Inverse folding.
DNA sequence: CCTAAACGTTGTCATATGACAACGTTTTAG
DNA sequence: CTAAAACGTTGTCATATGACAACGTTTAGG
């Protein structure tokens, strides 16, 4: 647990200009949670009120389409932040599920405290805005890649740009991230 | 030209808490440009230094994949803002083109002035952050829709949620936004 | 106003991928 | 440890979509 807070402190050190003392104050707003694989953190149909720092493990954001297939929007490995962002922003019912894809240690801040921190620590707000910008850039890249490339090229793209996903994440989940079925992914891997 | 500035003033009125005087000051940072259809505002390979308000007309953000096909990332109709956002954020060479899809009247602010305005007018910064959040939400939605739906359902989705695109925009450009060829789009429309 | 280019539609054909099933392997829960 | 479930792979078959071409219509530029 203490290690998790240390990782979060380091995350702020590396990504903000906050002083040690301020970092202490900020991280005290987060509460620790250890979850098992498949533990559900945010549900479709509910409004998301939390932001998550992944200290160890991996979270996955996904939705289920009308055919019942999962589509993965985002993975968050250790030392990254995530939420059911669309619902967190709009405060409308989430279409997303956010779940632990591995046993994970999390530090969680609720939305109210998060926005309060913006007042006291503008650097936290700046960090959030950087997160949003990066999330947008990443999402837009996926639109281009997935609209413009065939399956095999999407796979190659992820191999090159997000290789951790292929080693860490189950094929099924990677397939749902690549926009294809697991059997298609399996055949494409055999072709490489 | 004056009408364009009036529209921008109204845009700030409706989307920020700025006073009339502040709005005057902010809009004076923008310069007016009238462009013909197909005029190129931002190019692939160059770093984007501007943000655009569309007073009349329509801009289109797109990239060209390695097969030479266009993929449209975003349309901006009148009274909305746009840029080659990924490059604007990262200040790296753009993969995107930004071009006038109709004859358009634009008000343009350069990046430096834009960020300067953040200091004097925090409401402008807040507006930018709202823009980013919305851009992310929209982009993420496209990822889910385009990964999870077949062509016919993507078309129906746009008919329901962005109907203006289908009346205003050429089929070819809509097809490149939907991630399909123009001939496929044409056949799907015939099927409806 | 006229001509060439771009566009939208429709047809044919090729192909990437989904749906489904079978099967062995791995993981999980009790 | 054991049984059941989930997973990954591979096969077959059906289908949505891309590639390409033909053609009439619309648009843009001189």
């Amino acid at each position: 647990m203490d290690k998790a807070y240390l990782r979060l402190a380091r995350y702020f050190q590396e990504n903000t200009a906050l002083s040690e003392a301020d970092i202490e104050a900020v991280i005290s707003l987060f509460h620790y949670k250890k979850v098992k694989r498949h533990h559900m953190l945010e549900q479709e149909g509910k409004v998301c009120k939390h932001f998550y720092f992944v200290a160890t493990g991996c979270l996955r954001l996904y939705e289920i389409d009308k055919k019942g297939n999962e589509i993965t929007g985002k993975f968050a490995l250790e030392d990254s932040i995530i939420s059911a962002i669309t619902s967190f922003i709009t405060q409308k019912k989430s279409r997303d599920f956010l779940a632990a894809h591995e046993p994970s240690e999390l530090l969680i801040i609720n939305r109210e405290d998060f926005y309060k921190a913006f007042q006291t620590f503008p650097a936290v707000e700046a960090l959030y805005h950087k997160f949003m910008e990066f999330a947008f850039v990443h999402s837009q890249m996926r639109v281009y890649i997935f609209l413009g490339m065939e399956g095999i090229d999407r796979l190659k793209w992820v191999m090159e740009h997000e290789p951790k996903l292929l080693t860490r994440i189950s094929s099924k989940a990677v397939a749902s991230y690549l926009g294809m079925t697991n059997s298609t992914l399996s055949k494409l891997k055999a072709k490489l």
Summary: Chain B has nine helices and eight strands.
